[in-house]
Design a protein that fits this description.
By secondary structure, the protein is of the alpha/beta class. Helices cover about 45% and strands about 25% of the residues.
Amino acid sequence: MTTRRNVAATVAKFAEATNYALISIDSEGKIEFVNPSGCALFGYERDEMMGHPITIIIPERMRGSHMMGFARAAAGAAPNLGGKTVEVFALRKDGSEFPIEITLSVWRDRKGFSAGAIIKDISERRDRESRLLRLASQDDLTGLHNRHQFMQILDDSLQNGEGAAVILIDLDGFKDVNDSHGHAVGDALLQAVGVRLPYLLEPTAAIARLGGDEFAVFLPGMADPLALQKEAAKILDAFRRPFNLGGLVLDLASSIGIAISPHHGRDSSELVASADFALYRAKNAGGRCSRLFDHTMRGEANAHRTTRDELRTALREGQLAMYYQPQINLPTKEVIGFEALIRWHHPVKGLLTPGAFLPSLEQSALALEIGWWTLDQACAQISRLNRSGSTFRIGVNLFPSQFRALNLRDKVEAAISKHAIRACDLELEITEEVALSSDDRSLQTLCEIREMGVGIAFDDFGTGFASLSSLQRYPITKLKIDRSFVCNIQSSKSDAAIARALISLSRDLGVETIAEGVETDEQEEMLQSLSCPLAQGFRYGRPMAENELRSYLESRAIEPLKRNFL
């Protein structure tokens, strides 16, 4: 008897101390025992539970089925849930429901039928599982669908074979935001995009962030190219409006690729890949535009990607090199500088000029990497020439992505400092088309670089849509007359008139003029008659490797001109 009392006392102490809620009910369904954890779990005092029906902790909608099961067990039927652990909802005193894990037991003693339960609150576990489920289908930064869920939606929707469309959206300039303002601002910008997109589109549209700064839209039932172009125009227009992030105003643009099912793809992977090819074409066109997929894009895009992969290897393994074409003073025939031109020593195809591989670089991250490399190489060459006692200016071409990069000024300043050269010995060449398609921020950066003393050249001037007012707006120091106006300058009155006008205008503005593509005596004589001060072309030397520069200068037997630059 003493042992039994000791066991009972131990069990009572355990029931008082355990974190699990323990409840037992009698044959009438009234609570005859509840431990402190049970009271705390349901929000009652002990006397508010003892003797009260068990239904006070059962949600009303579930009471009928619970009590029917209890009645069957009390009548002698084997309980369906006896000894099993199940998950159900319970009710607190304040009326709130919450999930519990409950293990039921039934027994009979001298008082008759009784039932007991061990109960555990599983709210945290349910929340964690819910979060994991959301993570499996939702982008955790924007709350939009993630790639996995988006592809699943596509697969489910495309099974019926009806027309539908995918729009891929890539943010132009997002990397610059991350580089200039940090990843926290970049994340906030992505979240703002995630808010703006749903307001632009129909409720039936499925919107996802596929990763990085790439978003996707699925438009079920839409296969009309004209209607899709209108949707794309709506998105492009919306991205032209600045994003205000806590007082920080950011200008952003977007590029868009569109693909239509079933014409451009019958499953999710093929359709998204087609939209990606179209997106590549849009970015290659300078961005801020949309393109609809056509089947020629696939082969072209694959070729570009293969070239980019090979270029990454080329940069890593030293296959790229800078060649230098001389620029001369026409009246004196003295060498006054060089233009730095990139070449690729391809292991199979031999020496490649830029036209063979630069189109594959445009709008890719690799363009920036190679662009900064060319800038560094040009500055290093200036330093080596200076150490030999010569003074030359070397011009290096900027990629469009470099010109639009927020850190361009810092990169230029760092290269000058690294190689300890004078800023006036470096010249940056940009095409008028690239300059005119850029914003005020890029213009400000160019002005700051010019204030450092670096020269600014407009390359291929006259071949695009530049107005004469751009010569005043941009801080240029040199105007390069395109070779297309030089080729027939001695026989074409219009070419000669254009060259004459540009030379005269540049002189009045205090800007140097250099004629490109000079190859013959006749072209040189005509340019001299027009008072063109500088020239560049095969007549004075082809682009040459570094080890050829010294012998070239010696062969001309002319002391390099030391001069003050603008």
